[in-house]
Amino acid sequence: MNTIPLARKGFQRIIQFYLFETPVRTYKRSGKKGAPVTKDQPDPRYNYLFKKVSKRGITFADRNLDGSKLNSLRAAMARVSNVKFVVVDDYSEVIKAANLFDEDTEYLVIKRNYENVSVTEGYFYFIRNAFAHGDFDVDGKIYTLKNEKNGNVKGMARIKEDSLLAWIDLVNMDAEDIKKAGRKK
C-alpha cells in the first residue's frame, strides 16, 4: 500500500464526493403497507424503504436522475473516460474479469444487483464502499479499489484520478448536459 495523498486537492475532492456525498440510495423491504409516494419511495405497492447511503449526499432521485437518465449517465461516464465497465452475475466472476485487463487499462467490475441498486448506482456505491472501508490504494494518480464482504469480492477497479473527477462533474450536471457530455462536436 502506498501513502494516501491526503494533501492533494484531487484526492480531497474525490473523498468528499464519493465517501460523504455519494448520490446512491439503498432500499430494503418494509413491513409497512401503503408508504407515502415520494422521490425516495416511488410506489408504495413494492413496500420498499429507500435510504441515503451518505446523509450529506443528494441522491440520484433527488437530482431527477433515475431510469433511462441513469443509463445516459453511465454512457457519459464511458465517453469522458477510458474506463472499461463490466457487470458480472456471480462473485467468482469479479476477479476473473478484472484479471483480463492489462496493467495500463482502466476498468470497473462489479457484481450485478450490487446491494439492490441499479448498475449505475452500483458503480458509485462500489467506489464509496472501497473508500469507506479503506480497501483502496493510490499509486500516483491511479486508484485501485476493491470491495468485499464475507469473503466475496463484490467489485474491483483501477481508475485514473481524472476519470473519478470527471464523473463527479457529470453527476452535478443536469440531465440534458449529461446526454451531451463527452460527445464530439
SS strand fraction: 15-25%
Q: Note the gap between the termini.
A: 41 Å
Can you tell me the residue ranges where pLDDT is under 50 for at least 5 consecutive residues?
Answer: none
Overall, the morphology is globular
**SS-derived structural category:** alpha+beta
Query: Order of SSEs, N→C?
Result: HEEHEHEHEEEHH
Number of individual domains: 1
How helix-rich are the residues, as a percent range? 25-40%
Characterization of this structure:
There is one protein chain. The chain is α+β, with helices and mostly antiparallel strands and 185 residues long. The chain has one domain. The longest helix is centred in the last third of the chain and has 14 residues, at 119-132. The strands form 2 sheets. It has a 5-stranded mixed sheet, sandwiched between helices. The model has no long low-confidence stretch (mean pLDDT 86). It starts with 8 loop residues before the first helix and ends in a 5-residue tail after the last helix. Helix content is 34%, strand content 22%.
Name some characteristics of this structure:
two-stranded antiparallel sheet; alpha+beta; 7 strands; 185 residues; 5-stranded mixed beta sheet; globular
Can you summarize this structure?
The chain has six helices and seven strands.
SSE arrangement:
Blueprint lengths: L8 H12 L4 E5 L18 E5 L15 H12 L4 E5 L2 H8 L8 E5 L7 H14 L3 E4 L2 E8 L2 E9 H11 L3 H6 L5
Parallel strand pairs: 3-4
Antiparallel strand pairs: 1-2, 4-7, 5-6, 6-7
